[in-house]
Amino acid sequence: MSVILRAICSASSGLSSEPSGSFMRIEISFGLPNSWIVGSPKDAPAGDAIVAIGATLGAAPIDLTGKTKLLEAVDLLALADAVVSNDSGLMHVAGALGRPVVAIYGSTSPDVTPPLGPRSAVAEIELPCRPCFQRVCPLGHTNCLNLLTPALVEEKLFQSA
Asked: Are 148 and 157 in contact (CB under 8 A)?
């Protein structure tokens, strides 16, 4: 039996992060039972939400948000078979480690901070209002993230593998 270890990099600061509901849909599709969730202490509510939805599905991802030092998070990313991340420092680390990465862009743009790893792919949707680079959606709908689908992220994952 092969266990596929996947890392989810979460960040809760503004629109550069995936809203918990959308992230949970993506995570469930991505492989919830064999996942680590990594991020800073302020990401803990998002990690808790992902674990809670996992529990309703009989899955138990390992929530490490706020529980690792940076070097430990780097070690975990180095072991991951794949990484899904918002536009964050950990996304860049995973790319530098050569891991397959799907970088999720909402209000930010890969034209400004692209993933640089050789096995990286970008998940984004084109909207007239993005990129706005705002932490709070000025239009109140956050469609740049809410309209991203697990299918799109999964398709990009296969491209980066």
From this structure: no
